[in-house]
Amino acid sequence: MKVLSIFVALLVLPLTLPADEGKKGDRHNLDGTWTIVSGEKDGKPEPKDRIEGSVIVIKGNKITGTDRDKKEFFACTFTLDTSKKPWAIKMISAAPKKDQVARGIIKQDGDTAKLCYALREADTPTKFSTGKDQHCFVLKRTEK
User: Fold this and answer.
1) Whole-angstrom distance between the N-terminal and C-terminal Cα of the chain?
2) pLDDT score recorded for residue 28
3) How far, CA to CA in Å, does 57 sit from each of 6, 34, 44, 77?
């Protein structure tokens, strides 16, 4: 019975670890520098001039975003549930407003990633498009 308990714990543990623990598995392929190539908010495309030059850095369980002038516009910690397809992501902001929670989905295919999330109490996205109070971005990796 003791062996079975340890086995079950080992199976469940990776699903509950923050993104920076374990350093094994596909979720750590997200680590690196990404450029925002397109975006959508509230069902409408983000203007190119608003996202052009914006960079996202993912390292461990942290995400930071800077604009074309290298000014930070977003920072958060996050956890992933990689047992879901697409992966579920929960982000807790550090800036510009602290402790706001955003829930969403994320998937990666090589050097491209898609991230969609809900703001405030909006419904968590289930597909890679947006509704009211939702954001979606396509990211292209620039370096690992």
Assistant:
1) 43
2) 64
3) 35, 6, 25, 12
Residue given tokens 């509704």 in the structure block: 131
Structure token digits, residue 52: 């052009």
- From 140, 144, 21, select the one nearest 78 (Cα to Cα): 21
pLDDT at 23 (0 to 100)? 37
Structure-block tokens of residue 128: 């890679």
pTM summary value: 0.79
CATH of the domain at 18: 2.40.128.280
For the beta carbon of residue 118, count every other beta carbon within 10 angstroms: 20
- Walking along the chain (144 residues) 10 residues at a time, the average pLDDT comes out as 32 36 56 96 94 96 96 96 95 93 95 93 94 96 88
| Secondary structure letter of residue 124 according to DSSP | P
Closest CA to 33 of 56, 4, 13, 66: 56
- In this predicted structure, what is the pLDDT of residue 30? 92
Q: Cα separations (Å) of 24 from 21, 62, 107, 114?
A: 8, 17, 17, 21
- Residues spanned by the domain of 48: 2-143
